[in-house]
Amino acid sequence: MTGCDRSFLHSLYLIDSHTREARARVKLIRDPADRIALSPFHQYELQNAIRLSVFRGLREAAAGEAILAAFQTDQNDGRFALPTCNLAVVLSEAQRLSASYTMSGGYRAFDILHVAAALHFGTREFLTFDAKQSKLALAVGLKTGP
């Protein structure tokens, strides 16, 4: 499985400067065992970001609903891995990562949670467009990309 953060998912579903690269990277995933693993943190954070973009007037409500529906359809169709996530274990790992890296690297809580979930799922690679989050993923032994 492959891990990711919201910045990568954002680029898949909300058009930005990284969308082409994100979509090209997903097309390279041929083996179902290498699918992007989603945790409940991914699902919540991306859905909330889409809803917040509607609130901020960045898109119409209908467009936001269409993006949410596309994300749900991709999950239902198996385009993502949806492994069982033990939230207590992920939070414990996030606590450890925070204690080890936040004072020196300034990492945000959700950034740490995404890396902790990737470790919990046993991923080898972490997809992100966030340079700081890439640095954290590298520090814990994950290959980063797209």
Provide a descriptive summary of the structure in words:
With 146 residues, this protein is mainly α. The protein has one domain: 5'-nuclease (Rossmann fold, 3-Layer(aba) Sandwich), CATH 3.40.50. The chain has helices at 6-13, 19-27, 40-55, 61-76, 87-105, 109-121, 131-139; strands at residues 2-4, 36-37, 80-81, 125-127, 143-145. Strands 1-4-5 form a 3-stranded parallel β-sheet. The longest helix is centred in the middle third of the chain and has 19 residues, at 87-105. It is globular, with a radius of gyration of 15 Å.
Spans of at least 5 consecutive residues with low confidence? none
CATH architecture designation: 3-Layer(aba) Sandwich
Helix count, DSSP H or I runs of 4 or more residues? 7
Main sheet overview: 3 strands, parallel
User: Can you count the beta strands?
Assistant: 5
The share of residues in extended strands comes to 5-15%
Distance between the termini: 14 Å
**Structure classification:** mainly alpha
* Overall mean pLDDT: 95
Number of domains: 1
Radius of gyration: 15 Å
TL;DR of this structure?
The protein is 62% helix and 9% strand.
Provide tags for this entry:
146 residues, mainly alpha, Rossmann fold, three-stranded parallel β-sheet, two-stranded parallel ribbon
